[in-house]
Design goal:
Low-confidence stretches: none
Number of helices: 7
Helix content: over 70%
CATH architecture of the largest domain: Orthogonal Bundle
CATH topology of the largest domain: Hypothetical Protein Yqey, Chain: A, domain1
Strand content: under 5%
CATH class of the largest domain: Mainly Alpha
Structural class: mainly alpha
Mean pLDDT: 89
Distance between the termini: 40 Å
Number of strands: 0
Oligomer: single chain
Length: 150
């Protein structure tokens, strides 16, 4: 489904001569192909949808880090470019969970795994990544889990 959406978006943005969107979609597709090559090395036909969503979340994180550096360097032109790419990437991600939904998901995962200490954090993250890939910021989730386990 995601693969078809990306190809459709690429064609539409090319027809609309939206060069900025074309570039961002091509970056996503290139990342997708790289993930597919990695998956083939593991004996799979192609990367899973969860892998692709995680890749796009990582792309957004990289762009946010770049924005911080560009702001420090007074490069507003590059900040605008990165923000535009983030908007395009977010178009292909599912709706992001808010803080309350994230907390409820963490508590459910803790109950499911029987987690009681920091040693169980990996189990909780594994459950959450399996169920909610692309729907939550796992950097924030990590802090929520630590708070709940403390």
């Amino acid at each position: 489904m995601l693969r078809e959406e990306l190809q459709k978006a690429l064609k539409e943005s090319m027809l609309a001569k939206d060069t900025q969107k074309v570039g961002a979609v091509r970056l996503i597709i290139a990342g997708m192909k790289e993930k597919d090559v990695d998956a083939r090395g593991k004996g799979l036909k192609e990367a899973s949808e969860a892998d692709l969503l995680a890749m796009m979340q990582n792309m957004i994180k990289q762009r946010r880090d770049s924005i911080d550096m560009y702001l420090k360097g007074n490069r507003q032109d590059l900040v605008d470019k990165e923000q535009a790419e983030i908007k395009v990437i977010e178009m292909f991600l599912p709706k992001q969970m808010n803080d309350e939904e994230m907390l409820a998901a963490v508590k459910a995962a803790m109950a499911e795994t029987g987690a009681s200490s920091m040693k169980d954090m990996g189990k909780i993250m594994g459950v959450l990544k399996g169920k909610y890939a692309g729907q939550m910021d796992f950097g924030k989730v990590s802090a929520v889990i630590k708070k709940e386990l403390a």
